[in-house]
Backbone:
């Protein structure tokens, strides 16, 4: 179990580092770092900053789950809250990472949030394909 947990943690940290490198490369003129160590600090600080951002979004998620709006509306609102949480987490990370200077912090944060949203859409699409293959082209579950 410990090996599995360490493998999952390593995979998550590698994905966050890859995303951070992609956002940094895309916003090359907006982001200045003192060195490669700054990027590792950003990865290490992203998870606590993400937890802090999730703490702010948590009451909104609970309120949404308690309402009686349509299922599709709930899914869209959950997705919007997820993007907003990622946006806040990246903003927090930009401000607390030592050696990182960002000229317009909301632009890389918006890029990172959109990148996460695209990855989530891709993962859901792959899940739908896998589900339809395992059920012989007929999906028993509605999403």
Residues:
């Amino acid at each position: 179990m410990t090996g599995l947990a360490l493998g999952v943690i390593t995979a998550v940290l590698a994905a966050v580092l890859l995303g951070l490198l992609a956002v940094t490369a895309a916003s090359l003129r907006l982001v200045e770092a003192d060195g490669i160590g700054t990027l590792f600090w950003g990865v290490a600080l992203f998870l606590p900053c993400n937890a802090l951002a999730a703490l702010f979004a948590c009451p909104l998620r609970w309120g949404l789950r308690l309402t009686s709006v349509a299922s599709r509306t709930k899914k869209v609102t959950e997705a919007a809250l997820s993007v907003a949480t990622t946006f806040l987490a990246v903003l927090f990370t930009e401000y607390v990472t030592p050696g990182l200077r960002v000229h317009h912090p909301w632009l890389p944060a918006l890029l990172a949030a959109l990148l996460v949203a695209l990855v989530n859409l891709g993962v859901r699409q792959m899940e739908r394909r896998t589900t339809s293959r395992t059920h012989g082209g007929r999906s028993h579950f509605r999403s």
User: Anything to note?
Assistant: The beta strands are 31-33, 100-102. Residues 2-134 form one domain. Residues 36-66 form the longest helix (31 residues). The chain has one domain: 2-134.
